[in-house]
Amino acid sequence: MHLSVARLCLDCQEIHSDDRCPVCTSEAFGFITRWVKVDTQPRAVPKDEAATNAARVDSYRQILNPAAKRSTAARWLRKGGLVVAAGYLARLGWQIAAQRNRPSEGPPPNAS
Questions:
Q1: 3-state secondary structure at position 41
Q2: What gap in Å lies between CA 19 and CA 7, rounded to an integer?
């Protein structure tokens, strides 16, 4: 870590280079260069370090937002289950409507 990007967390006193402290996730920090003076300009970040940081960021993205793809069979089973449930509910509604439309069976009307 280059001294010009090093930050001191004011809450847990951890030294890091991120926007938030990796230990306590605090945003309160002070740059180390506030107390230690640097004579030269910061040099470019080595490509190896940038590549490992990019890989680490991708890993965290996958952990936080998993995009697990389901198999084709699982998707067909889920859709088929929804169709069966919809058919059952339609049949149940049809039977209830048919029972309401039937005349109730009671004593026959008097013919006298």
A1: coil
A2: 9
Domain that holds residue 33: 3-64
Q: Are residues 56 and 93 in the same domain?
A: no
Q: Is the dihedral of CA 26, 30, 31, 35 positive or negative?
A: negative
Summarize pLDDT for 7-49 with one digit per residue, the tens. Answer: 888 888 888 888 888 888 888 888 888 888 776 665 666 666 6
Non-local CB neighbours of 11 within 8 Å, separated by 6+ positions: 21, 24, 26, 28
The model's pTM is: 0.34
95 and 54 in a single domain? The answer is no
Alpha-carbon span 105 to 103, nearest angstrom: 6
Q: Which helix (H) or strand (E) segment is 24 a member of?
A: none
Q: How far is CA 75 from CA 32, 66, 79, 80, in A?
A: 54, 18, 6, 8
Q: Is 109 a domain residue? A: no
Helical (H) or strand (E) element with 13: none
Alpha carbons 70 and 6: distance in angstroms, whole number: 43
